[in-house]
Design goal:
With 224 residues, the chain is α/β, with parallel strands linked by helices. It has 7 helices and 8 strands; from the N terminus they run H-E-E-H-E-E-H-E-H-E-H-E-H-E-H. The chain is elongated, with a radius of gyration of 21 Å. The protein binds flavin-adenine dinucleotide.
């Protein structure tokens, strides 16, 4: 949520993106440096628009699971209420599809990518997930372009950022935008027929092969 909240707040406050070296998140308002999302006033003149905000104010958020909770959180910091004169305009409404799974809480996740040629093939990944007690997620094209899974199921820089114990990526090439969403997973396993794919390079373990042969073997092993 760090990136999402940052962008909402930055847009509401009228924060302006400033070019700073680092890993830019693709957004007109916010950007990220590693785990920290921030937005910054580009010019002190912009600060004058909102009473009570000093020049050079920086808005910083972090993702819900990016850091372990502090054990002795003695310093609560200063909390101040502020008036925001923003008047957001609703330009339209689109009902959000009911969320069927809470991927953020899942300890094990099986994720599918374009290595699956048809929607019906996803049944094999669901069988694997059922066998090991995992939830099913996907890469962006599976949700956004093919519409085979709900959009809240895709993982990555513009989707879900997960921190499961096990992330099992099947037929996912592992582009940087996808890896961003799982870089904090405790164990990453990749199944891919391309030994050189970036997903394998980012995995703790990988199996080179066609998922049509590999998944049944894992399911069989999981079922004992
Ligand atoms: C601004 C921007 C934001 C983006 N945000 C995201 C994001 O948040 N999340 C995201 O996922 N993507 C995101 N993308 C897209 C991303 O760059 C990749 O295009 C996408 O992740 C690729 O999805 P994929 O791995 O499923 O498909 P592909 O890259 O096509 O990979 C398919 C893989 O399947 C393997 N394969 C094929 N057949 C088999 C088989 N039978 N058995 C085993 N393996 C097989 C192939 O070797 C290949 O590695 C973003 C892109 C942009 C430009």
């Amino acid at each position: 949520m760090g990136a999402d909240i940052n962008e909402w707040a930055a847009a509401l406050l009228g924060f302006i993106r400033e070019n700073t070296p680092g890993r830019n998140r693709l957004s007109p308002y916010g950007m990220s440096l590693g785990k920290v999302y921030f937005a910054q006033f580009a010019a002190p003149a912009a600060c004058e628009k909102i009473p009570g905000i000093p020049a050079k104010t920086v808005l910083v958020t972090v993702g819900a699971k990016d850091y372990e909770p502090a054990q002795n959180a003695g310093n609560a910091g200063d909390v101040a209420a502020m008036e925001i004169a923003a008047t957001p305009k609703v330009t339209g409404r689109k009902p959000r599809a009911a969320q069927t799974v809470n991927l953020g809480e899942a300890a094990k996740v099986v994720a599918v990518g374009r290595g699956f040629a048809e929607q019906s093939e996803l049944a094999a990944a669901r069988d694997l997930a059922a066998a090991i007690g995992a939830e099913v997620a996907c890469s962006r094209p599976i949700a956004e372009f093919f519409k085979w899974m709900p959009e809240e199921c895709y993982v990555g820089i513009s989707g879900q950022v997960l921190k499961p114990d096990l992330y099992l990526a099947v037929g996912i090439s592992g582009q940087a935008q996808h890896i961003f969403g799982v870089r904090e997973a405790k164990t990453i396993v990749s199944v891919n027929k391309d030994a050189e794919c970036p997903m394998n390079a980012n995995a703790d373990y990988y199996i080179v092969g066609d998922w049509k042969e590999v998944l049944p073997a894992i399911i069989k092993a999981a079922k004992g």
